[in-house]
Request: fold
Amino acid sequence: MHILKCPKCNSYGLTEKCGCGSKRVRPKPPKYSPEDKYAKYRRKWKEEHKKNV
Ligand SMILES: [Zn+2]
Reply:
């Protein structure tokens, strides 16, 4: 089960369809960081993502 986030109204839910009419998507880790402080988080996210495939 995944928590999905609506990019439009920033609400979270388990269904893709949001009450605002937009579609919820999986929250993504930051694409780029000047520092490496998110590297751990990105790796963790990747590992979890892999497990669910
Ligand atoms: Zn929404």
